[in-house]
Design goal:
With 208 residues, this protein is α+β, with helices and mostly antiparallel strands. It has two domains: 74 residues, Nucleic acid-binding proteins (OB fold (Dihydrolipoamide Acetyltransferase, E2P)), CATH 2.40.50; 86 residues, DNA polymerase, domain 1 (Orthogonal Bundle), CATH 1.10.150. The protein contains seven helices and seven strands; from the N terminus they run αβαββββααββααα. A hairpin with a 5-residue loop joins strand 2 and strand 3. The longest helix is centred in the middle third of the chain and has 17 residues.
Length: 208
């Protein structure tokens, strides 16, 4: 491992990731959990828990709702510091494999919605992204971007910063929204050497 790789990994591991909002992926009755967790949640008065996807760092989270509050799948809820209307607690960070198939099927459309809503943020990524190592540029982690396309992007953004997903496509031929959504889903599944958009698995979000 060279110094560039070490710096990249240490930079990611040293960060703490806090989500402000999350999208509900699944509502799970406590009766469907393992015995120990059923007992724990039932003693605390919970009839169900929820799995959710963080909006900023795409962390997969297990949450407990406030008693008496109605929560719907796909709903965007506040989970940040301060008063939470519907969520009592962030219990833990979960893995992609812990999700139900229904939740997994929902992820692509929710990720696409988040990326669309934060278009300027991701366009800025195309404008500012740099190399990870002397031989690997972060843009090359996106599907369909090889050396030739990479140089096209770098040359175009040097002339003038990209303004939108459409601008990127018109000037480079890359469907930026599509490749970003694909990359986020790959990172959510885990097993990546580098993480561009999703908080790395080694980073834990504690109970709050």
């Amino acid at each position: 491992m060279n110094l560039s790789q070490m710096y990249w990994q240490l930079l990611q591991r040293g960060r703490r990731y806090f989500e402000e909002y999350a999208y509900i992926l699944d509502i799970i009755p406590t009766s469907a959990l393992d015995f120990q967790r059923i007992r724990t949640y039932k003693l605390q008065g919970y009839d169900y828990i929820v799995h959710a996807l963080g909006e900023q760092y795409f962390t997969l989270l297990e949450l407990t709702p406030k008693v008496g509050k109605e929560i719907k799948v796909r709903e965007k809820v506040f989970i940040g510091k301060g008063y939470r209307d519907k969520i009592e607690r962030i219990v833990r960070r979960i893995t992609y494999d812990e999700l139900s198939q229904e939740a997994k099927d929902l992820i692509p459309s929710i990720v696409e919605e988040i990326v669309s809503n934060k278009e300027q943020y991701f366009v800025d990524f195309f404008n500012r992204a740099g190399p990870i190592t002397p031989r690997l540029h972060s843009l090359e982690l996106l599907r369909g971007i090889g050396k030739k396309t990479l140089w096209d992007i770098l040359n175009e953004r040097k002339k003038e910063p990209f303004k939108s997903f459409e601008d990127i496509k018109n000037r480079t031929g890359i469907d930026a929204k599509k490749v970003i959504v694909e990359r986020i889903i790959e990172e959510l599944k885990g097993g990546q050497k580098y993480y561009l958009f999703v908080a790395p698995p080694s980073t834990q979000q504690g109970t709050t």
